[in-house]
Amino acid sequence: MSQPETHESSAQHLARRVREAFADPKLANVLYHDWEADSYDDKWSISYDQRCIDYARGRFAHVAGTTGWPYPRALELGCGTGFFLLNLKQAGVLDEGHVTDISPGMVAVARRNAEALGFAVEGRVADAESIPYDDDTFDLVVGHAVLHHIPDVELALREVLRVLRPGGRFVFAGEPTRRGDWVARRLSTLTWKATTRVTQLGPLRERWARPPAELAAASQAAALEAVVDLHTFDPDSLARTALRAGAVDVRTVTEELTASWFGWPMRTFEYAVNRERLGFRWAMVAYKGWLRLSALDEKVLARVVPDELFYNVCLTGTKPT
Ligand SMILES: C[S@@+](CC[C@H](N)C(=O)[O-])C[C@H]1O[C@@H](n2cnc3c(N)ncnc32)[C@H](O)[C@@H]1O
Q1: What is the residue with the minimal CA distance to atom 11 of ligand 1?
Q2: What is the distance in A from the centroid of ligand 1 to the CA of 56?
């Protein structure tokens, strides 16, 4: 990574790196996620209590079932603040956990979150296209919302298979589908525009608007977000990519249709307003609404709606024995 040049202030250095990042998706990922690391759990309502333990467990079990738990040794790619692996560990899915991310800021927060939960997890800064572990090291490799940031997904999956023991499993969840993402982004953009305009009106402004500096920073982050989000996936071609990388027993499932039509605008609204106004009751109403719609999606709509229209795709497979 580049160092400040002698004539540059640290603000000028950061501005230059942001300009460079628009042409370099990996640098963009480091900058964007380093920038987000400390506020990430708040922004995405991530917690390490029963709500998120159940969520992580549910995503894993939906695509990969519940046999083989606990996996003795597990690695997470693109761990962010540790949401997936730390909650899977609390759910009893795995024993020993290792977290990695290309963003040093995220690895630091993930380790801090693990310590707060009383776990020892090893954390390394690592690019998923070149995983810094020996062959045949892990029984399980997981990732949540990471594949769509990686330039060469097939290369990353080959690396996953290299570090897995023969028979070991990988599980990637929370990846956007092409069609689901198209709808979710439009709903989010509409919500953002409507909310930021309405909260500027007269008496609403003081109570509901986010301070202008925070809104400006959020808009800058959104511009960089367009650079870090590299892919959306068609479930069948994602499965074929995993097969080409050398995996067997490959399976994909999709989830969240009406839940994503509800969840994306809700999260965007929460991000666009002064959060102090929302409180715990709001969080519970939003969560329960999302749970009900997820159940409707899984139990009813998944039988009749084509799978590529759902928002999330999850992928699993194993290394040949
Ligand atoms: C959308 S965040 C998801 C974080 C976390 N897994 C979660 O679900 O909350 C994607 C994460 O992937 C990381 N990432 C992006 N590109 C990567 C790469 N090439 N190798 C490893 N991690 C990467 C980012 O730094 C970021 O922390």
Answers
A1: 78
A2: 16
